[in-house]
Amino acid sequence: MGALGAGACLAAQSVPAEVDVVIVGAGSAGLHAARRLQELGKRVVVIEARERIGGRAYTNASTFGFPFDYGCAWLHKADDNPYTPLARQWGYTLQEHDTALEGLYFRGREATADLRGRATRVEQELGDRLEKLGRRRDVAASTAVRRRSEVDDAVATFHGPMSSAVDLDELSARDYLNVGTDVPPNFLVKEGYGTLVAQYGKDVPVTLNTAARRIRYGGEGVQVDTDNGTLRAKACIVTSSTGVLAAEKIRFDPPLPAWKEDAIAGLPMGLLAKIPLQFSKPEFRYRAFEDVLQENPGKRDIYFLCWPFQLNLLVGFVGGDFAWELSAAGEAEAVDFARNALRRMWGSEADKYFVKGDFTKWASDPWALGAYAAATPGNAAAREGLRRPLADRVFFAGEACAPRWTQTCGGAALSGMETAEQLAKLLP
Ligand SMILES: Cc1cc2nc3c(=O)[nH]c(=O)nc-3n(C[C@H](O)[C@H](O)[C@H](O)COP(=O)(O)OP(=O)(O)OC[C@H]3O[C@@H](n4cnc5c(N)ncnc54)[C@H](O)[C@@H]3O)c2cc1C
Q: Is the pTM of this model over 0.70?
């Protein structure tokens, strides 16, 4: 195995002289794969393009003075999520929060309690119809929407952009069955989901600031060419997002077969973007953990999680096509959009206590290029293709490959562990 050059910044431990497996990416999947392989007695090294571990699990406390999750925030399917026991063991503050609709606004107009009740019923009905449709056919999830009123549009927003990160016409109804976002019980983490993932990975041997540029797998084993030299190992696990794979940030030699390219193309990245807004005073208008949705024409909907953990923060969310549009427009436009949405609902009170806003940048983040992957109509089987290894030595893992609860951080962890076990059986 070749040594990494002097430019490599080593975290936790130095690169071992010989490894069995190189793992590309120190996100939830890569960290779980590494630890599972180590438990199975294999020597591993993880290379990470960023200057930190965690990938799309990222908590930052410097913007607002308390931890804020720029990426994943909810432990979905928390009764079965591998991170839940760790969070409990390490003393994290968990709060159950399944999205409800304490506030529903059409443009600026507040919906009556009757309409909110109807929205809740329609949401349940649409969920049931999507499940039935997905079991029968791999068509656009929007086929399940019965559009009768703006309530149907609001509800479709929750099932599509705010949950799957794509508009329902771009989502395979069959793939909807795989998706783990919003599967209860859902827990928020006060100290940050990103903090939890980073704590899980703190002893994993990761080499930071080291991008894999080319993977050669034509001869014996694999050679991974990085910015800091070439690593040789018996096998590798690639955990890059489908956005990164589609952008060909890693070259494969021999080139990827057509079935693998089709799988990547069938699982484009969706986008969920957050617009956190800080105020000098929390809990006005709505109470902590309440949910407010503003439905706007042209699918320009915005959802607010109000005052999580009684903090002075409203977290705006936009998703799907509109999130890409706002991301192209930039942070100032996004914060303006969210503040205008609040003004329409709450008038001058929206400005009275405003301190500052921020906007997540996953659309342009070179090592994510979106939030998470969703299969397009007709392509639900693409996840199978993405999971399939090349020549029994180039393996793929991550949220898009997850055996269950795709799109989620917990699903990515499972994918990492299962891929590690599958690979370990093949290693001499
Ligand atoms: C805004 C947003 C909100 C979300 N909300 C939730 C939520 O509430 N709950 C939930 O469960 N999930 C949520 N998710 C999804 C969740 O964050 C992801 O599913 C999960 O973190 C993905 O983990 P992963 O290991 O598959 O990928 P990643 O976290 O992307 O890890 C892959 C790693 O590989 C690195 N990498 C990529 N290419 C290379 C290369 N060539 N060389 C070296 N390193 C490379 C990347 O830098 C990254 O660190 C959200 C995501 C976003 C963006």
A: yes
